[in-house]
Amino acid sequence: MDKWQLLKNRRAILSGLVALGIAAMGMAPFAGSASAQSLLEKIRNGETIRIGFSNQAPWAYPGESNEPLGFVNAMTLDILKKMGATKVEPVVTEWGSLIPGLQAGRLDIITGGMYILPARCRNVLFTDPIVVVKDALIVPKGNPKGLHSYEDVRDKRVTFVTGSGYESVAIAQKVGIPDDKLMQVAGDVEIAQAVKVGRADAGSANYLSMKRVVENDDILELADPFTSPKRPGYSALGFPLNEQATVDAFNAAMKDYLGSDEMMASVGKYGYDKTMLPDGTATAAICKE
Questions:
Q1: Which of 48, 61, 106, 170 has a beta carbon 3.0–4.6 Å from 87's, enabling a disulfide?
Q2: 27: pLDDT confidence band, cut at 50, 70 and 90?
Q3: φ/ψ (deg, to 5) at 35
Q4: Number of domains composing the chain
């Protein structure tokens, strides 16, 4: 073989190697995407599912051994079981850390009973609503300052407390409660404590949570009547934005479960009753408001 033929063969071999390299590079993204496992696959394969919630009794809260308690967790566990999940890892965190935790991949599902809000819909995929709840106003026993609305709080220039990240914050600001009279705390227990020790004159959160914190309390009560400027809250479970197929499957499994005897047996002990069942309002409609 002369040197020209040898050089020609070498060029052919190099061209072949380059072509193979380009092909391999083109296939790499597809191989990576094929190996990525969706949350739905993890559920169906019985892998550990991380559910995130804060200490929001009776919605979702940790037990003595960190077991997931509360009616939202009870519903979630029932439905995940129907879908094939066998292992759940509870992740307890502050309310304000739930969405960031979901976005960062530290959580698979938010089970904290989060309200569906247009601003949240940009960061979370919500399931169909699981509960409809009104708000309540917590005040000292006897309601000495006669507070029955956000407007009362504003006009009497008293201090109002609610949870950081709660919808109540935006409502208070919209009504005109000044920032120096608006206190934000970690959650429902802290709302009650702020009113109890006199750091705030009134506080607001959902009716279920507020009712629970004033039960058998000699210092606090719920304002009656209470006129809220907001419509009832629609709560749902939250999933990552790229898990639409998982949300669709969860909704399908939930369809016959909502309102069933099985569900009511799981959630009744937490104060959930049939008056709180969803009214047919769609998540998509709420997200567009």
A1: 48
A2: very low
A3: -85, -15
A4: 2
